[in-house]
Task: structure prediction
Amino acid sequence: MFDGAMLASGKRLSVRARLLAIALVPMLVILPLLLGISIYRWNAKFDAITVSKVNDDLTIAHQYLARILQNTEDQLVAMAESARFQDLLVKGDYTDGNFAELLKETARKHVFDFLYVIDDGGHVVASEYPMAAVSIRWDWPIVVSALRGQPKTDIDVFEPGELAAISPGLARRARIDLVKTTGSADTDRAVETRGLVLQSAGPLTLPDGRKAALIGGMLLSQNLAFVDTINDLTFSGAGLPDGSKGTATLFLGDVRISTNVGLFKGKRAIGTRVSAAVKDAVLEQGRTWLGSAFVVDDWYISAYEPILDSFDRRVGMLYVGFLQRPFTDAKFQTLLTIAAAFVLAVAATVPLFLTWARSVFKPLERMTGTIARVESGDLAARTGPIRNKDEIGQVALHLNHLLDLVQDRDAELRRWNEELNQRVEERALKLQQTAAQLETTTKQLVMSEKLAAIGEITAGVAHEINNPIAVMQGNLEVIRDLMGPNAESARTEFRLIDEQMNRISEMVTKLLRFAKPQEYAGYTEHYAAANIVTDTLPLVQHLLRKKTIQVEREDRASRTIMMNRTELQQVLVNLIVNAIHAMPQGGRLTLRTCDRDFDQRKGVAIEVADTGAGMTSEVMQKVFDPFFTTKSREGTGLGLSISQMLTTRQGGNIAVESELGKGTTFTVWLPEAG
Result:
C-alpha cells in the first residue's frame, strides 16, 4: 500500500509540474524571451536610426560644401564677365590702381584669401596685392581647365612653399602643431605645414589674344567661420537630446585643420588626429564611415567621407557627428523601466495563475490514470462520473467517448493495416518506375539548360564587342574632323581602319544571330544556299586555322531556299565543326551546293564533306539519336539530333555517307522556295 501511495503521489506531482509549467512558462520564460528579442530589435533599430541621422547630416554637409564650390565658381565667372572688369582688362594696363582695387574689392566681398590673373605662360598678370614670388605653381587642373575655356572649382593641397609664393601670411595661417591623440596612427611628424585650399578658376582672353585665367582661393586650414557655418546648417533644429551636441570637422589627411570639437578650456581640437581605424577605412579604402567612433576624448555617432582634390586623390575628410553618451543613457533608462515593469507584472500575476491551476489538478489526475490504464492494454477503462460541467468536465466526457471509439476502431484498423501494406507495395513499384523516368528527363533538361547558357554567354560577348566598336568609329570621325585638310594624307589608313571595324561589326552581327536565333526567328526569306555558307565560314574560321584545314567551295545551285537563316546556319556550323573534329591532323573540307530533286520535289542540296577517319555502319545508324556522341568529353550528343529536327521541320532531310579511312559526307536537302 505504501508503494502504491508513493506511485500515486508521484503521478500527482508530475501532473502539477506540467500544469504549473503550462501556467508559468509563458510568463517566466516565453515572455522574457520575447521581451529580450523585442529589446534587441529595438536597440538595433535605435542604433540604425542614429546612424541614419548622422548619414543625413553628412549629406547636408556634403551638399553645403558642393554648393560653396559652385557658388565660388559662379561668383568668379560673374566677376570675370562683368562690364567693369572687361573694361579694365581691355585697357591692358594691369598696373593700374583701379584694376588692383577691383580685385581687392572682389576678394573682400567673396572672402577670397587670394585673387590674381595668370596667362597661358604661367606669368602673373595682375593680383589684388603684390605676390611674394615671381613665379607660382600654375599646373593645377583647374587652371589648365580655365585656360582651355572651361571654369572649374576644386579643393587642393598646397605645400608650404606654394602658399608662401602667394603670401607668407597664408603659410603661417596653414601651420598647425600636431596634438598627440588617443587611437591615432603612429607618426613622427610634429607639425602640419600644408594647407587645404578651395580654389576656383575662370577663363579670360587678354587684349593681345592670349588665353588667361582669373584664379581665386580660400584657405580652409583654421577657417573656423567655414566649419561653424557647416555645423550650424547641419544641426540647426536637429532635435538632439539634452547633453548631446553636433560637431563638424575638415581634415587634411588625418589631421583636424578646422573643427568645432572641443579639446579643453574652450580650445578647439585643431591639430588632433583621427583614429587609425577611420583613417584606414576612409583615406586608404575610400569608404564612407558611418557609426560609432572615438573623437579626441569621447565617443561620437560619426560620419566621415573622403575629400578628393582636383587630381582625384583622397587628401582629407569631411566629418559630422554628435555625442553618443546621451543616447546610451536614454537607452539604459528605457531598459531599466521595462525591467521594473516586467517584475511588477510577474509579482501580480503568478499567484493568480497558481490559484487557477489547483482547480485543474484533480480532474486531470483522474484522466491521467485512465489514460495510463488504456496504454497498458485495458481498452475498457473509463474516467467515471464527472461532477464539474466546466471545460475540464467536458474534456473528461469527450475522453470517455473517445475511448469508446478507440475500442471500436481498433479492430477496423487492424483490417485496414493489411490492405494498406498491399497498396504500399504497389505504390512503391510505381514510384521506382517514375523515379527512373524522372532521372532520364532531368538529364535532358540539364543538357538543354547548359546549351541555353552557352547561347546567352555568346550573345552577351557579341553585344559587349559592339559597344567599343561604336565608340572607336565615333572617335575616328572626330579625329578626321580635328585633322581637317591634313586627313587627306592619311586617307588610306583611315579607309583600312573603317574596313576592319566594319568587318568586326559584321562578324559580331553574324555571331549574335547564331547565338540568339529566337531574336531573328519568326520570319523566312528567299536566299541562295551559297550565301548562307559564306556567312557561316567566319564563325568557324578559328577552328580551321588551328587544324590546318583546306576549304574547297563548289557553288552550282541556281534555286533559292526559304529556311530561317539562323536555323540553317546552326545546322551548317554543327556539321562543319564535326568535320573539323574528324580531321585532327588537318585535311580538306569540301562545301558544295547544287540543285537536286528528292521524292519528286525540287530543291537544293548542301554537302559538307571531310577527309577524316570516317564512320562504321553501326555509328552511322546512331549519329542522329539524341545524346549519342563519339566525343565523350567534348560533345553533348544533341547537335545532329537538333540539326535533323530543324531540317525536317522545314520539310527537308539530312543524309550521311561515310567509309572508314576515306571520310564522311553529310547532305542537307531543302525544298525550293515557292
User: Anything to note?
Assistant: Confidence is low (pLDDT under 50) at residues 1-12. The domain at 73-327 is CATH 3.30.450.20 (Beta-Lactamase). The chain has 17 helices and 21 strands.
